[in-house]
């Protein structure tokens, strides 16, 4: 049975007619499909998210877990797409349906296009408001997250992912070593989104409509999410605005605190921004390795192997700034 | 020896085809995005062909001097340097500075092929 037939039957059992199905741009470790459905009331769009078979890193969540995360986030007041029905298996892979939120998701457009100039002014506050709520999600309802991961735990996982590539990357090693020697203690434990940045948001003219892509969520230090937001790769060329290409680091930290979050020092932010660059550098290599091992042939995954040098360069620059040389 | 177009010229022709004939007929963001990625991959190959083998030879000599060994190819030398950094041998002292400088030079050589705009601070992607 084809994907289309399988989904058609699943939806039909829920009183919906599948009208069309098309693959969306997006995740390198899971697929997203836009599914148009109809009933007596008319047609509407749903999104199907499905495991791709490979994983971004050894820590990636399954779609069933992502479904539970979206439910918990919604209950905590985080703007997210609402999940629908229950998780399912399609062609042997875990998947779930969620509502389709209209709006802009492409990071480069959000950061650079004139059409989004006004909403860019609202996003820092709104993104930090939502992040404070994410960091307040009760962890008890999400047992699959396991124990909170300290910086040392996360570094060890990155080292394992890097070792699996069997390539020497001295710049990333310099970063990992500095992260080891300067690791902050785990002072507070929270739900960490793990990929919280421009490019994983749905944005309308009034602002943030939904936070997407929960596949790297884990229990750990909430400051990790704020550092990741500032990683150069997510500025889409607007290096004059280090916080996601939309604002300054100072304003971002201030917005987080004003939304009810704890005080994050500039030193903590620098630590987790450097961590984010190393994490994305290792992540890019790990995804390229999946292509190179033939697990999943993809031009997108292949070229990530050459993108890693950008994170290496930024890691070295941040090390210099931190006085680590 | 092969007739022209040579390898670089063939790659350039395919990139031109992707950019000017395939890209304009892509309806969806996903198709446009992947076409641009494919064209960019070919641009990387063009730059790699044009710099030739000199950067790799320079890196080999740089790493052999840094690791004080007359042997090893670049892949093995990088792995050895990575191992020593992880074990803490480059934590302090003059060798740390030498490691940092050599690593910086190596990363810049990679970026000169992978994305020259990045080093100029005008990343346009």
Provide a short characterization of the protein structure.
The complex is a heterodimer of chains A (325) and B (125). Chain A is an alpha+beta fold and 325 residues long. In chain A, 43% of the residues lie in helices and 18% in strands.
Oligomer: heterodimer
Order of helices and strands of chain A: HEEEHEEHHHHEEEEHHHH
Radius of gyration of chain B: 19 Å
- DSSP E strands of chain B, number: 0
Largest interface: A-B, 35 and 45 residues
> How many domain regions of chain A?
2
Order of helices and strands of chain B: HHHHHH
CATH domain class of the largest domain in chain A: Alpha Beta
Please give the number of β-strands of chain A. Answer: 9
Strand content of chain A: 15-25%
- Determine the number of helices of chain B (DSSP H or I, runs of at least 4 residues): 6
As a percent range, the share of helical residues of chain A equals: 40-55%
Distance between the termini of chain A: 59 Å
Q: Can you identify the CATH superfamily of the largest domain in chain A?
A: Aminoglycoside phosphotransferase (APH), C-terminal lobe
Report on the structure:
The complex is a heterodimer of chains A (325) and B (125). In chain A, helix 9 packs antiparallel against helix 10. Chain A has 10 helices and 9 strands. In chain A, 43% of the residues lie in helices and 18% in strands. Chain A has helices at 3-12, 63-75, 107-112, 117-134, 151-165, 170-181, 223-229, 249-258, 266-292, 299-321, and strands at 17-23, 30-39, 42-51, 83-90, 93-99, 190-192, 201-204, 207-211, 218-220. The model of chain A has no long low-confidence stretch (mean pLDDT 93). Chain A is of the alpha+beta class and 325 residues long. Helix content of chain B is 74%, strand content 0%. Chain B is elongated. The two termini of chain B are 37 Å apart. Chain A binds chain B through residues 22-26, 106, 108, 159, 166-171, 173-174, 176-177, 181, 236-237, 239, 299-300, 302-303, 306-307, 309-310, 312-313, 316, 319, 325, and chain B through 28-30, 33-34, 37-38, 40-41, 44, 75, 77-83, 85-86, 88, 90-91, 96-97, 99-100, 102-104, 106-108, 110-111, 113-115, 118-119, 121-125.
